[in-house]
Amino acid sequence: MEDRIDELEHEVADLRTVIDEPEEEADENPQEDDFAALDRWLQENGPQSDDAQEILLTAAQILNSEGPLKTSELKDRLAERYLEESTYASVDTLWASTVERLYEVTPGFEKPGYGTYDFDTTQIKKQIN
């Protein structure tokens, strides 16, 4: 009986470790948390289309890692990734229906100058909360 209790205690300890791991991983990369929060915001408040939500999330990630980018650069990056498999007929339609239409209300997006877009992850939590 004591052996079985020991086994169960080890199983519980292992389960607690597994439960705690996502929090540790989140602490290691806070930007993943920011993008998860943006994804939730998009699902709750953003466009109804799953394609549009995914495109905005991708645009945010591209701008976060490479930005600021000119409009044409960001459009090209999104077109490479989504134009063939999305519901949008052209890159202009994709752009007009997503980033151009929603950047002002989507947390984190910025337009630091004419024809330039950027993304600031620190603004996500400020704007969402």
UniProtKB/TrEMBL annotation:
<feature type="compositionally biased region" description="Basic and acidic residues">
    <location>
        <begin position="10"/>
        <end position="19"/>
    </location>
</feature>
<protein>
    <submittedName>
        <fullName>Uncharacterized protein</fullName>
    </submittedName>
</protein>
<feature type="compositionally biased region" description="Acidic residues">
    <location>
        <begin position="20"/>
        <end position="32"/>
    </location>
</feature>
<feature type="region of interest" description="Disordered">
    <location>
        <begin position="1"/>
        <end position="32"/>
    </location>
</feature>
